[in-house]
Backbone:
């Protein structure tokens, strides 16, 4: 399940303008991707094509970079982003059960967005809060020492 990206002409124009600016300096790819993520909220294939054309790079290269860095996403994110840490400290304390609970509650898999566009569920690596393991975040809020029960409570609050 995914949310389709709608690109307006203004957004495309802005991206091309940004690319033209970045091309004046060495290493234009990363700042371009950063801008694309900000403008569109994600960098799907149709946006990668524009970047590839404007920078004279292959789509394979652009796609490789987009999929390598977790700060770039291929699909638009939902209104709320739930990220469950599957780093070692969290994993050994049961974060897999927490993410499995969210999958059941949201009826989606990892790195997917609900059809209504309300929630995106992400798996993350260590976010540096191992002392609170297992940890998940909802937007800017951090939930430590979590369990499937915490997941249910937070989900209930978000959907009330
Ligand atoms: S392993 Fe989850 S916060 Fe470090």
Residues:
């Amino acid at each position: 399940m995914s949310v389709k990206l709608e690109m307006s002409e203004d957004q495309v124009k802005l991206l091309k303008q940004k690319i033209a600016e970045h091309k004046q300096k060495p290493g234009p790819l990363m700042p371009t991707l950063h801008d694309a993520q900000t403008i569109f909220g994600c960098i799907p294939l149709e946006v990668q094509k524009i970047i590839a054309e404007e920078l004279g790079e292959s789509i394979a290269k652009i796609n490789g970079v987009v999929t390598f860095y977790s700060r770039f996403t291929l699909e638009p994110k939902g209104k709320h982003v739930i990220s469950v840490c599957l780093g070692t400290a969290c994993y050994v304390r049961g974060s897999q059960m927490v993410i499995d609970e969210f999958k059941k509650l949201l009826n989606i898999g990892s790195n997917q967005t609900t059809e209504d566009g309300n929630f995106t569920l992400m798996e993350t690596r260590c976010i540096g809060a191992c002392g609170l393991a297992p940890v998940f975040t909802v937007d800017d809020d951090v939930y430590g020492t979590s369990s499937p029960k915490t997941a249910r409570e937070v989900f209930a609050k978000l959907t009330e």
